[in-house]
Design a protein that fits this description.
The structure is a homodimer. Chain A is an alpha/beta fold and about 375 residues long. Chain A contains 15 helices and 16 strands. In chain A, strand 15 and strand 16 form a beta hairpin. Chains A and B meet through helix 4, helix 13 and helix 14 of A and helix 4, helix 13 and helix 14 of B.
Chain lengths: ~375, ~375
């Protein structure tokens, strides 16, 4: 393997783990949730407020940033952390996933994926080497290998072909990363769809190559939660105990707890900000749709016991009004409220693992969600 | 006149004045700029950040709020200050101006203006009495009389008819306001278009009725700046020295200084937030269009001497990227940057008047604006 380890496990509770991941821009407490700052911005949230939610690390999208404003430009401006003013740890994806979902006329061959930009139609080639180069230019603390992610359901043949290609690209990514300065990290990505044998083959091949950490990709792409959890269970035993494990693009608060229970350390998802823009709040009482008329006259906050000021102090009636009126402030408040909820959940998860009470915590949290929101006022 | 005075002049420099206006929700330092929180929200700015810019008082739009979420609902929720969480001084307009500009099928007669809501087409009648009732329900620290504002150019006959109607509505507004608890204020609105004799007739009639303060309305509605300034000069001598004077819907930073020079104490305008949403920043160097490609690679902030963190620390290249990408964060940052600039300008204006150096300050500020933005980088 040969790559230095920057991850320190500090406690375990059955398969659940808590630890510290050192990066050039600061320490990340795990299990960690990474909000997604797509195109160099957290949608509708100030960076100063992202930090205040307890976020240690954020995710930036290579695909968006390489097209606009461009990786070379961001490098000349001192890297993504300085460009945005976030200044904390940042992980970038490889660009591959969004090439598949956003661009036109994409073509994959052994060498690279070629596509047309969804912004201006310019033809772009993204090879494993170029993906690493772009992520290095962006200044990512953690870079991801380029992979091919197959949308499920898919045939075992298609899944295996993409997985084998991803392993070859992993080797090339690892070589391309060799010039990176100390402290920066590269994660490999386990593929293999919903086929357990392919998942374990992928994991073993990646561990043979050796990475700073290991991601599980190609999940939360249309399969039932039970399949996702089974694939995690089939993959984790093949990953080294002492390296961070990152479940990509997941998920709901419940997904996060189920995955932590199975040994996952890191997550990213657009759900807190996307649902915030659509009028939905994540809370101790589950997901709450602020568009619902029952909130129109309700002076009570979303959760009077929350430690996040906007969750604790702002009347539901006001949030309802903002959402119904299409005011930008509605998306702003609900996005920060949701990120704060996710981060508070991760903080409680870490505390429960440290105290070895994670199974109890999981049960209590599920019970609160199942009880649902407080009854309508008056 | 008979209405108690809550305004205290603390210094004058020629016609320019600085003072303190006491309201039930706090003291307002004048000259004061009121950002506009149209429909119960400052567009793209958190209330906590509005306060941090040095804003003492904000404006809410009666027309929007009476239609959605409704004045009775806001009253039941404890008033607009509590509903929004702003909790500071608030002035509401009468609703008349936006009935004219936003609604369909409006009809004005002696009694009231009748219109259809632009949201759901419901027919609504707004009389002087109902306007005061709505503003009292909203909990405005300062309410405005209902008036009829004529868009210029207009014939002297049309201007006079609207002005006379506005005076009769002023009397009715004053009577309707009599039940308001102590400390809350009602301002009359001088009309009269671009006809000096009508302006003075309007001012004298309003002073005879007696108000807590006096607004100059019907300007910045299409006439040249010179006409606006002349109308101010023709009106101010007829207003009592000891009462606050409010120039409605104005304006650019230059308009504000010219009006302060002529004895105006209060302003409101959507310009800082509207221009912020359109990619324009107000700075010491004048207005700067961040869409301009010359900012794309510029690591320098808008103004490294600014005391506002976003103005001082954020690279122009990042603001350019956000604006070009249509990211909500671009509007958020530029709106707060612009409100902060306006408030800093007002703070400097108040200090200059206190030191009796306002003419020098006006000259220096104009010179800086005229010099224009710093040259492109590189």
């Amino acid at each position: 393997m040969g790559l230095p380890n920057h991850f320190e496990l500090t406690a375990t509770d059955e398969a659940a783990r808590t630890g510290l991941l050192g990066t050039p821009h600061g320490v990340v407490r795990t299990p960690a949730f990474m909000p997604v700052g797509t195109a160099g911005a957290m949608k509708s949230v100030h960076w100063r407020d992202v930090r205040d939610t307890g976020t240690d690390i954020v995710l930036g999208n290579t695909y968006h940033l390489m097209l606009r404003p461009g990786a070379e430009r961001i490098a000349a401006l001192g890297g993504l952390q300085r460009f945005t003013g976030w200044n904390g740890p940042m992980l970038t994806d490889s660009g591959g996933f969004q090439v598949m979902s956003l661009s036109d006329l994409r073509k994959i061959d052994e060498n690279a994926v070629t596509f047309r930009s969804h912004i201006d139609g310019v033809k772009v080639e993204l090879s494993p080497e170029r993906s690493i180069e772009v992520q290095r230019l962006l200044g990512a603390d953690i870079a991801m290998q380029l992979d091919e992610c197959v949308r499920l359901p898919a045939t075992p043949g298609d899944i295996e072909r993409a997985m084998r290609l991803s392993v070859r690209w992993a080797e090339r990514s690892r070589r391309a990363f060799e010039a990176a300065p100390p402290g920066y990290m590269l994660f490999g990505i386990v593929q293999g769809g919903d086929v357990p044998a392919l998942r374990s083959a992928s994991a073993c091949a990646l561990v043979d190559i050796g990475f700073h950490g290991y991601a599980i990709g190609g999940l939360a792409v249309g399969e039932p939660q039970s399949v996702m959890l089974e694939m995690i269970e089939r993959t984790v035993p093949h990953l080294p105990e002492d390296r961070p494990r990152y479940l990509m693009g997941v998920g709901t608060p419940e997904d996060l707890l189920e995955a932590v229970k199975r040994g996952i350390d890191m997550f990213d998802c657009v759900l807190p900000t996307r649902n915030g823009r659509h009028g939905v709040a994540f809370t101790r009482f589950g997901a709450i749709n602020l568009r619902n008329a029952r909130h129109a006259d309700d002076p009570r906050p979303l959760d009077e016991q929350s430690s996040w000021p906007s969750t604790r102090d702002i009347p539901r009636a006001y949030l309802h009004h903002l959402v119904k009126s299409g005011e930008a402030l509605g998306a702003m408040l609900l996005s920060e409220i949701n990120i704060a909820y996710y981060q508070r959940l991760m903080q409680d998860v870490r505390a429960a693992i440290s105290r070895r009470t994670f199974p109890d915590f999981l049960e209590q949290t599920r019970t609160e969600w199942a009880r649902g929101d407080i009854a309508a006022a008056g």
